[in-house]
Amino acid sequence: MAFKSNLKSELIASYINQTMIQESELQQQLREETAKLPNSNMQVSPDQGAFLSLLIKMTHARRAIEVGTFTGYSALCLATALPHDGQLICCDVSDEWTSIGKPYWKQADVDSKIDLRIAPAIETLDQLIEQGQAGQFDFAFIDADKPPYPDYYERCYTLLKHGGVIVLDNILMHIKDDAEDYDMDHFMHEFNMNVREDDRVDAMIVGVGGGMLLAWKK
Ligand SMILES: C[S@@+](CC[C@H](N)C(=O)[O-])C[C@H]1O[C@@H](n2cnc3c(N)ncnc32)[C@H](O)[C@@H]1O
Is residue 3 part of a domain? Predict the structure, then answer.
């Protein structure tokens, strides 16, 4: 079932990250501060940050949701790309990790666009739906704990306008470098197949970082 490719994914990622990324000084500083943490691999890579910024601009997004903020690097990329009157609702359970990003958000002058909600993301998303916010958002980035991805996806789908975009990270976590084939029993593969069959959206996976799934709400 595996398709052969002549392209070396690590070399491609390294080329893109070394040549195409134009991070702000603050983005670089926050990424480097986060890199000192033991779980620093949770933050998106610079190419993913740049890709998210580009998507925000290309979709003319004004209101966005982030599920999983960690130390705030992806939020900094998203909020910087949003217009002056834009809004980013960030969902995370960690005060400690998100506090690392706050001074950078302030220095970048995007703190007024960011509304951080410290609570399980399902609660925050349900609250938004209960408050009548369904169909009011342009963009959602999902990058928190992985097993509830279907629940995050469904709620973000509800919160998006038609024409809105959901981006999900780590969507290829079931594909291991040293494996001969894909793990078809992995929940992430099942999730991808369910999105493929979801005729409310058009969807595609792109191989940026650990693999990102893009779903466009029809
Ligand atoms: C992969 S990290 C996010 C990385 C971030 N997007 C970045 O690029 O820096 C996952 C985050 O999800 C948060 N998280 C885990 N479970 C959660 C839940 N049930 N609700 C909200 N956030 C959660 C963790 O605290 C962690 O900060």
Answer: no
Query: How many A from CA of 2 to the centre of ligand 1?
Result: 31
**Which residue's CA is the nearest one to ligand 1's atom 27?**
70
For ligand 1, is residue 212 a contact (CB within 6 Å)? no
Q: Is residue 37 in a domain?
A: no
The alpha carbon of 6 and the centre of ligand 1 are apart by a number of angstroms equal to 34
Is 86:61 a contact under the CB 8 Å cutoff?
yes
Q: How many domains are contained in the chain?
A: 1
The band of 5, judged by pLDDT with boundaries at 50, 70 and 90, is low
- The response to whether residue 91 sits with its C-beta less than 6 Å from ligand 1 reads yes
Q: Quick check: pTM over 0.90?
A: yes
Q: Please write the tens of the pLDDT for every residue from 24-48.
A: 999 999 999 999 999 999 999 999 9
CATH of the domain at 13: 3.40.50.150
* Region of residue 164 (left: phi > 0; alpha: psi -120 to 50; beta: else): beta
What CA–CA distance (Å, rounded) separates 81 from 142? 17
